[in-house]
Design brief:
The chain has 404 residues and is of the alpha/beta class. It has 14 helices and 14 strands. Helix 1 (26-41) packs across helix 2 (54-71) and helix 12 (325-337) packs across helix 14.
């Protein structure tokens, strides 16, 4: 937090990068350091704080930061309508908030001038947005503050900034989960059980490693198959739609202990069966899969708009699923590792794909091979809905009424 202070050997650095494990304390550390530096070193001018989206930035950075500042007696206020944070007394410093969601986000920041910038989860932002934000920090003495979780070693930020930290006059700090003093030994053990393979190395040890081999090596027929299903309290359906490519539908039920079970599935491979099915025929198959189960929601491949419309005409509660591939794979892996999802032995195509679903080592990034992945896709839709925050993308808009 004090790397920029006069008595620090790193005071001449132009930037700091904090990467490493999840829940390691890097976000809070770097955001407090950024604010302390700004309060002590910036006399005038605007600053900026950037995240993947405005919603995630407020949730993960701004609100925890404001809570700590108030504990320290530092006045601060968030002006939501202006995406602006003000910190300090009298003439407070202004911090503009930006979301770097896609390539078009660079336009939002163009033309501004900043005395410093904090970029949280920088590895998730488009390179064009990051470079535009850095170009805006043209005030004399400006400093840059970065934080991120590791990704694949060919990622542009790792190659351009972390590997060239000395050349760019950057202080690089790698955090491990054990660096967070607020995590108890029990919580640390839980996280170590939660992740396996490359996700363990990235999210627990904080390393930039490539993914290779099986995507779900933790899947075990001995551990994850369950022929005697319990009584179910809730039901969901997940669908990966295909015409030429296979289609995969799964019926999920929640047991009394909170675990979820893939009760049965429908899988149609037109090449194998020698027959293409229409939306109406797929809808008939889906209704047969559901049977008498009181399904809360039918999660459908978001690209299958015509199929979603067909299900709506039949009165089925269909909606577009979240299609975040890497986050979905991580969520499925965590659910398997924690013993939260199980499969009836009759779900033969899911079981078969678990043994075939692999990372594409030639892709240069985190991408699965687009083969033997149709049940894997519908399982991913289900996992993101239940364990990943739920629902399709929302605006984050919320309204309340308070009696005055």
């Amino acid at each position: 937090m004090n790397w920029w202070c006069e008595n620090s050997p790193h005071r001449g650095r132009d930037a700091v990068i904090c990467d490493g494990a999840v829940r390691s304390g890097k976000t809070l550390s770097v955001s407090l350091s950024f604010v302390f530096w700004a309060l002590c070193r910036v006399e005038r001018g605007e600053l900026c704080i950037c995240g993947k989206t405005i919603t995630s930035l407020r949730r993960n950075v701004v609100r925890p930061l404001m809570a700590r500042l108030r504990e320290l007696g530092v006045p601060c206020r968030l002006i939501v309508s202006q995406n602006r944070l003000e910190i300090g007394e009298g003439y407070p410093l202004g911090f503009s908030l930006f979301g770097g969601r896609d390539e078009g986000s660079a336009d939002l920041i163009q033309g501004a001038t900043f005395a410093g910038a904090l970029l949280d989860e920088v590895a998730l932002m488009p390179r064009s947005f990051v470079e535009q934000a850095l170009a805006r920090c043209s005030v004399e003495g400006a400093r840059l503050f970065f934080s991120c979780n590791p990704s694949y070693p060919q990622h542009w930020f790792y190659r351009e900034w972390i590997l060239r930290a000395q050349e760019k006059n950057v202080l690089y700090l790698r955090f491990e989960m054990r660096d967070n003093p607020s995590l108890s030994p029990a919580v640390l053990r839980r996280y170590k059980r939660l992740y396996t393979g490359p996700f363990y190395e990235r999210y627990v040890l904080g390393r930039w490693v490539a993914v290779r081999g099986l995507i779900y090596p933790m899947f075990s027929q001995e551990k994850h198959l369950c022929s005697a299903l319990p009584a179910m309290s809730r039901y969901l359906v997940s669908c990966d739609y295909g015409t030429v490519n296979p289609a995969s539908f799964g019926l999920w039920g929640q047991g009394p202990d909170g675990s979820w079970y893939r009760v049965r599935e429908f899988y149609h491979d037109s090449r194998r069966e020698g027959k293409l099915l229409t939306d109406e025929e797929y809808a008939n198959a889906l209704e047969g899969l559901i049977g008498k189960a009181a399904v809360e929601s039918v999660l459908v491949d978001p690209s299958a708009a015509s199929f979603i419309a067909c299900l709506h005409r039949r009165g089925l509660p269909a909606k577009a699923a979240r299609n975040d591939v890497v986050n979905g794979i991580r969520t499925v892996a965590a659910a398997l590792g924690e013993g939260k999802i199980f499969f009836h032995p009759g779900c033969e195509d899911s079981i078969r794909e678990f043994s075939l679903y692999r990372w594409d080592e030639k892709a240069g990034g985190d991408a699965p091979i687009k083969k033997d992945d149709h049940a894997m896709d519908d399982i991913r839709y289900f996992a993101l809905e239940v364990f990943g925050g739920g629902g399709a993308k929302t605006s984050g808009f919320w309204v309340g009424s308070v009696e005055r």
